Inverse folding.
């Protein structure tokens, strides 16, 4: 059996998605050594491997840049997925971010005696089961695995009896393979609405389950609202964007879509639920090309019974039911930064800093803009702490 490899590190960053690469880039610019571990074989694996083909960023490019590298003027205001992936690949190259790919962090806990984080990492490229994990001791630990680590599969009565195709949105790519089939999309967030639209455009008979209240806005209205939030209180912004939305979406209750009493931006702060950004789905709902159903009562074979008593046969189900963080699976001392639900235990805007030198980036549901803000706060805090202990720091790293 191969012996454990012990190494000292200043900062260990877990995850090479936008959160991890942004934090590493900033630390590199401050000359703070750091190691990035990523369980997949590439950076930004969620974008590259687990997103549908037609995905594009819902927010304007000025809200979707990582630190140190704004998008060029030539980039479209609303980027495609491929454009953003190319941006991240260039970002990693430009700022010397060098993730250790196929390195799965199996555990991390704080050793009080040494005042360091002990991080056990397994190289999954090595197939020998007898190989022990590598062990790293770090002064600082950054959790950058994000909120979308694991697909959520809901418990639906009778789902196990369904004999058609059932996939999660993370495995959905394009609606072409569902042409002429009757497909039910469960989940009415942005992914569910866009997948429904994609299915319809590719010749499928699409339906969507809408259980919850939600706001529907256009990309342009959201852009106006986000700009105004820099200058105007959220209640005034909500009032204004709701007024604009009324001209396009006031008829939605007649199609089974009801909006909350709270305005869209305050509602997101309250619940974490982002407004649905309409890119053609609502037009198809109005024309009955996409049917809207309420919650599901039960499923029996290929027949779905809904809460309103309607019965409908489907050939396939797409679960656009979101993701969850699984940081607590490997972060044994998660209590220093997270609660039981893997949410930061400290309130915004101090959510990013935990105890004992542990930090989190990208756990507030604020997208790329939130990741940029978190990574700047984390990198600056680590830099200040490193500088404060500089006389003894070099000795500790030996």
């Amino acid at each position: 059996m191969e012996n454990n490899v012990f190494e000292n590190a200043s900062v260990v960053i877990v995850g090479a998605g936008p959160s991890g690469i942004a934090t590493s880039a900033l630390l590199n610019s401050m000359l703070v050594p750091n190691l990035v571990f990523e369980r997949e074989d590439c950076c930004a694996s969620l974008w590259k491997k687990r997103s549908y083909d037609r995905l594009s960023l819902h927010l304007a490019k000025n809200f979707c840049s990582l630190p140190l590298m704004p998008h060029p003027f030539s980039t479209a205001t609303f980027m495609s997925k491929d454009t953003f992936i190319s941006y991240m690949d260039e970002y990693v190259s430009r700022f010397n971010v060098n993730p250790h790919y196929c390195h799965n962090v199996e555990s991390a806990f704080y050793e009080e005696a040494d005042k360091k984080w002990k991080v056990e990492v397994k190289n999954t490229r090595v197939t020998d089961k007898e190989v022990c994990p590598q062990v790293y001791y770090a002064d600082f630990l950054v959790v950058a695995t994000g909120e979308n680590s694991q697909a959520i599969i809901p418990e639906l009565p009778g789902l196990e009896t369904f004999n058609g195709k059932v996939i999660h949105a993370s495995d959905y790519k394009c609606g072409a393979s569902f042409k002429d089939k009757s497909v039910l999309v469960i989940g009415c967030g942005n992914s569910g609405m866009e997948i429904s639209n994609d299915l319809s455009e590719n010749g499928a008979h699409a339906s969507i389950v809408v259980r919850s209240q939600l706001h529907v806005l256009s990309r342009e209205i959201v852009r106006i609202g986000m700009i105004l939030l820099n200058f105007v209180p959220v209640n005034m912004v909500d009032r204004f964007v709701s007024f604009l939305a009324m001209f396009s979406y006031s008829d939605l209750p007649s199609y089974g879509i009801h909006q909350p009493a709270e305005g869209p931006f305050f509602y997101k702060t309250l619940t974490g639920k982002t407004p649905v950004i309409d890119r053609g789905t609502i037009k198809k709902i109005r024309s009955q090309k996409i049917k809207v159903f309420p919650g599901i009562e039960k499923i029996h074979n290929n027949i779905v019974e809904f809460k309103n008593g309607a019965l409908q046969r489907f050939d396939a189900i797409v679960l656009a039911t979101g993701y969850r963080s699984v940081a607590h699976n490997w972060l044994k001392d998660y209590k220093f930064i997270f609660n039981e639900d893997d949410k930061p235990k400290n309130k915004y805007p101090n959510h990013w800093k935990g105890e004992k030198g542990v930090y989190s980036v990208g756990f507030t549901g604020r997208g790329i803009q939130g990741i940029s803000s978190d990574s700047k706060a984390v990198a600056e805090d680590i830099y200040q702490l490193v500088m404060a202990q500089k006389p003894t720091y070099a000795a500790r790293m030996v």
About this structure: The longest helix spans residues 367-388.
